[in-house]
Amino acid sequence: xxxxxxxxxxxxxxxxxxxxxxxxxxxxxxxxxxxxxxxxxxxxxxxxxxxxxxxxxxxxxxxxxxxxxxxxxxxxxxxxxxxxxxxxxxxxxxxxxxxxxxxxxxxxxxxxxxxxxxxxxxxxxxxxxxxxxxxxxxxxxxxxxxxxxxxxxxxxxxxxxxxxxxxxxxxxxxxxxxxx
Length: 180
What we know:
The protein is of the alpha+beta class. Helices cover 33% and strands 29% of the residues. The protein has 5 helices and 7 strands. It is globular, with a radius of gyration of 16 Å. The relative contact order is 0.25.
């Protein structure tokens, strides 16, 4: 269940008209021992998201495209446990913005989630290290929104640690790399 909510966490979005300049943001950052190309591929390809998000996943990477995932390996994409995200915008190898548009059955924060969105920023620390910053936006003072925000604070960390494990595992399998 935490993986389902972790993906929702990193993909929540809402119309930008609801945002204000000083609204509360939830920010999580991590540096991963992987190149920006490897990280970008993990976020923008079907094989990439399958490696760290869910066993059943697909992405149509374009503005307005869908990122769909189902954590039930015996389920189907599109069933009641699938989460669907819409790609709002991207700047290649720099930023992706997502909005959750369909929520899995049983997700406790649907109302609050409809008013939020996430932006992922990517920057090279070195040739073989990338910083990922996740910014969750659209949170309100409502009780449900604040509970969702607290939950997603942990879920973002979990999800990006899964990404790190997948990328480090891929790097270990392909052998040592050289570079700075």
